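Subgroup meeting minutes
Present: P.N., E.W., G.H.
Scribe: E.W.

1. P.N. recapped why we're keeping a running log of single-chain structure predictions: easier to compare across weeks, and new members can see raw inputs and outputs side by side.
2. G.H. added today's entry (407 aa).
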Amino acid sequence: MKALFYIFIFVLTVSSVSGQEGNNIRFKGFVDTYHSAKIESPNDLISSRSRLRVELDKINGNSYFFVSLNAVHNNVLPEFTGIQFREAYLEYTEESWGFKAGRQIIVWGKADGLRITDVISPMDLTEFLAQDYDDIRMPVNGIVLSKFSTNWNLDLICIPIMEGYILPGADNPWGTDYASLGIVEDEAQKPKLNLSNMEYGGKLSFYLSGIDFDLSALHTFNKAPVYSFNLDSTNLLHMTPEYNRVGFVGLGFAKSLNAFVLRGEGAFYFDKNFTPDMTNYTEGIQKSNSINYLLGLDWYPGGDWTFTGQFSDEYIMDYSKNIALNQHNYISTIGISKKILQSTVTLSTFAYIGLNDGDFYNRSSIDYSISDNIHVMTGYDWFYGDKGLFGQYKDNTQVWVKAKYSF
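Output recorded in log:
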């Protein structure tokens, strides 16, 4: 309560300052509340959280700064209740160059909801994918140096401190209780804080008539941990999360074709690490090159309809049966949205389909805009399958409601 009181005082102070004549500080944000429950009896709550987002920015000549923070109250996961800084960065721009430094979200790639080259900002998977994707993507502390012209842009990035995914714990409806499986999860082996563990890379983008494309390269870490296993002296199996170096070179494009947009993205990963198959865990973490690629097509036929489709594959080269994954890991997405009632209501559905195991995750929703500031939403999240990335959550099929006020 004390933390919420402080943020309330902060909001009032900033509102007063931003309202003074001649001050170009801009202040905005939103309040939202989200609640979901399982379809299956006894209809346990999976999520129940409310949030205040505050955003503050200011332009002063060629300089710019931006700060955003969340004040969250989470009933299901009380450890996430509190005030969290989201972004805080400064930016400077000249006619042909600039830089951005601080805590920021860095987005690469052409994919929608899938990660091929968009691996700089890690993911918050405390509720798996049952959040808005803007909330799943996490900020990092970094520096971006930019050089640009009319039809091209070069970004060079440096991330001094590696940050990994936030994964659900054993007491989370989206987590796994490894202790019940007879496995002890040890503390993660994270990279040490030194210059040799710095992440760095760059992306060169071109914006031509009817087509955009980019070339990228990154020396980074796997943000989702891989796991090694070993038996202790009492024959108890230990699982250790590890973060290892990996690099890639990538490319992407987007081409407009009348009412269609064709998108593509690909990356060659060097020496990527993979969790071993449990039947061969004594072989240790496996390492191999891999190729990730994606093709997508968006169709805007008019009448406020939107159709999207994507196909992606991760192909593991020099494949070994000791790897827990398949040699090819296929995922497709399908999305449809339609605005009705003078664009005050949006009907949408979006599905991830695991083609290897026949599992899927589908979110269907209705978004009603009561006014420019107030939205109320409800939806149904359907997890299906006996195994696979999405099938493991089949018991978490849920209904949800959400309300949001923007200011």
